[in-house]
Amino acid sequence: MELFASNMEKLAEPVKQAYKKLAELERTNPGAFYDAYMLRQVACGANGDTGLQNTYLKILHDLGQGLTDISSGVRQLSSKYTTVEEESKMTAEDLSNAMNSAQSDFTKIGSGG
Q: Is the pTM of this model over 0.85?
């Protein structure tokens, strides 16, 4: 379980870095003609707070948080169940409780929540 938790952390880190780099990008400001305005609206929204860039930021945030929560949940289980014999006694409720916060993160992906 520790290896799985460690792998989830390794997956979360590049996602968090991608979020950070995308957040640092300036909003598209292509010019003052019709096609440029339409491009800006799709990429960043009319006021710079919607559009593809904002959608990707939300998705990257939720994905990074979800992977981190999986890692934390598995580590929590790993500390409680240290041997294979103990793991075989794990209940579905234990697993569900450990993964609950990750599930809510993944549910938000793509829903705009």
A: no
Cβ contact 75:2 at 8 Å: yes
Q: 14-18: list long-range contacts, CB under 8 Å, 24+ apart.
A: 15/60, 15/63, 15/64, 15/67, 16/60, 16/64, 18/60
Percent of the chain with pLDDT over 70: 92
d(C-alpha 16, C-alpha 12), whole Å = 6
Tell me the per-residue pLDDT of 7-23, one tens digit each, with 9 for 90 and over: 999 999 999 999 999 88
CA-based torsion, 8, 11, 13, 15: positive or negative: negative
